[in-house]
Amino acid sequence: MCADTVYVWEDDPGAPPSSRSPVARPAPKLDQPPLPVVIEGSVPGAFHSSDYKLRYWSAADAARRTIDWVKEAVPGELKWHKDVGRKLTVHLDDGERFNAWYNRTGVYFFHGTANNQTIYSAESPDIVSHEMGHAVLDAINPRLFGVNDPQVYAFHEAFGDISSMLSSLTVDGFCSAVIFDTGGDLKKSSRLSRTGEQMAWALRRSRPHKVEQTCLRDAANEFYYMDPMTLPLRAPAVQLCAEEHSFSRVFSAAFLDALAETFYGNTVERLQDSAKEMAKILVAAVAATPMSTRHFADVAAHMLAVDRVMYSGSHSVELRAAFVDRGILSLSESSELTQAVLDSGTEAIERVIGAETLEWPELSAMPMPGARYGLRENFLVIAPSEPPRFVNPVPPNGDDENRPQRAATFFVDSLFSQGEIRVPDELITEKSPMYRQIESYTHEIVRAASGLYELRRVGFDDSNEGKGHP
Ligand SMILES: [Zn+2]
To answer: Which residues form a coiled coil (predicted)?
Structure first.
């Protein structure tokens, strides 16, 4: 039997010594459509420790809140990706590492120790809502999962952090606290903008430059868009780099800015209305956006087009301000996105709003030379080869005629150099000594039924300890 009231963390336990206290919430019901969730492990009873209860119910409540914001934002009957099955399984503690991940068998959380204090990633609603965000985006538009492109990958991470923000905003007490703390200016750093304060504290004990000063990532930041292919693969957290979590901060910042621009009145009700409107605009946009090398800009343009369809363009000024201010849309691109241009996408957008099932054109695969990586054979990769719907395929000041191929190559290079690809033994030669069998990887090369080798994504790894080297 479940208790009617449970105690959970409101958004994150906070960095020790934290003054935060658990809050009372109704016991979440998870086994219900849309998007039913099951938590592996016992429902807390009298014999469980208070720590287990807090961890279990914090994760359960965060999962419930995620479904709550998604349910408001998606009018149709949404289902998990077919490989997930009818229910998504939450694994509360899958071993020792500072990590959390989503793959199409569930969402997984772990534990780790810093300064003699054990930290559980499932105990942070921020982190749970982020992982749930990966699963939700995979349900809304499964094509992002397999595309080999730095921006598409980073977008998945941005969506995770946005999910975390939207999930927190379903809680009235949290909204009151954020309005009070920021004075109503959501662009200020706050518990809303910061993700994973406790985990960041733990990681800073051993890797002080890996995460931001106060959290894993702060959407209230100063990052400005650059083509990720011009950025290094890693950098201290204070700098922007092509690594997906780092780069995602540009889009999540623009989303927070847009939310801040549309929020007025300083009431909980108005804040929740703004969040619901932005969530609706975002999910319809991500469902309709083609897989191109200009994903951030094209999603932004789709958000403007969705706003035309849903709200007669009433958020146009705020959305443009947010995306131009972050360099995601250039000034000239924003000017080119006239009402007539945006309305040319109305049919495509109306097709995804409320659709029961969506038919997606198959993405083309391109051969990647195995010799580039010291492998015995070539393998196929899905490239971001669709043209963007609204923005130019080549970015302003760009001169690249074959961006999809260059982006896929950049991306696969980054996966190999960070040890994220599991390579079958039969492909390994004396020129590929660095490919040992690794325990944790996001991608693998497999032999398909066609007899050809293919690169496939396994999952999203939110490791903060270094990829592929748990
Ligand atoms: Zn993630």
So the answer is: none
* Distance (Å) from CA 342 to ligand 1 centroid: 31
- How much distance in Å is there from the Cα of 182 to the middle of ligand 1? 26
Q: How many Cβ atoms sit within 10 Å of the Cβ of residue 94?
A: 18
Q: What is the pLDDT of residues 188-223, one digit of tens each?
A: 999 999 999 999 999 999 999 999 999 999 999 999
pLDDT for 469 equals 32
Q: How far apart are the CA of 309 and the centre of ligand 1, in A?
A: 30
* DSSP letter, residue 427: G
Omega before 17 within 30 of 0, i.e. cis: yes
Distance in Å, CA 45 to ligand 1 centroid: 31
Sheet holding 365-368, edge to edge: 365-368, 379-382, 453-457, 443-447, 421-422
Name the residue ranges covered by the structural domains of the chain: 5-352, 365-461
**CA-CA-CA-CA dihedral for 239, 100, 220, 140, to nearest 10:** 110
| 101 CA → ligand 1 middle, Å | 7
Using the mean position of ligand 1's atoms as its centre, give its distance from the Cα of residue 366 in Å: 26
